[in-house]
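debug: dumping io for the single-chain case to check the tokenizer round-trip. Nothing else runs in this session.
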Amino acid sequence: VYHFAVSLGNQVEGKLIRMAEEHRRLIDQFLGERKDDLRFAAATNTFRELSNESNLQKLLKNLQSGSRAFFDLGVFDRAGNHVAYTGPYELAGKNYAGEEWFKKVQKKGVYISDVFLGFRNIPHFVIAVREGDGTREWYLRATIDTLFFNQLVENVRIGKTGEAYLVNEEGKFQTRRRSGGDLMELDNDSHLYEFEPGRTVSFSAEDRSGTHHLYAVSKLEHTGWLLVVRQEFIDAYTPLAKAVISAIGLIVGGGAVVMLIAFFLATSLANRLTMADMEKRQMKTQLIMAGRLAEV
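debug: decoded output
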């Protein structure tokens, strides 16, 4: 039973790890494809063309035909001026030179930001790419639909309590946590998250509320965010407990059946031996009686 329980426990942990790894690959693929879409859009259009809002609107529609994740588009000159914008907010004309994402894309050429408020004062994250040579650099930025991305990340169902979410290096939520935790809030459990580059780490721990969880944590390639997949310990191991109890029940039940069969066989054998002994004594008595009658 012990080895059976250990084997089932390893299966529970292995299932969570596999699910976390598959989900991490899905999210990384999504982010990588959106970066490539934006790079291609910037490489196949000129700054002058996309400075025209009509052209920018057409480009956004083309991008959205490939993925509904694109929410809006903006074009910026090398000084950080928002030259053209298409989307639901009034952002054209503002200067972004002091914004963290703008400084990062200037250095890296392509950048996926953490979730931030920005001028729109609403939590969101952006993908930005640099285009042009050193004398005529310009930038194309896309906002990723927060609701779409949250649904992508949250789309994990493990038992009754399983959930998936993202936190950045500062331990702030980059997606909502179903059991409690809004965008940009500090995750008070982030100090628990163990991870190693290139692999998914599994462990069990109690969160701040005292609830024991089984965790699988993996680091995203394109952002450095941590993907956390977790399930309440009791929920994760309930099938294991039921299986172990069933196994014990089968063993105990099987043992009881064997003992009953052995008891009945032994009783039957004892009765036969007793009958045989009685018959033997009866025959002996009859022989003695017959001998005496012969003497008479």
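debug: round-trip ok. The CA atoms of residues 114 and 262 lie 71 Å apart.
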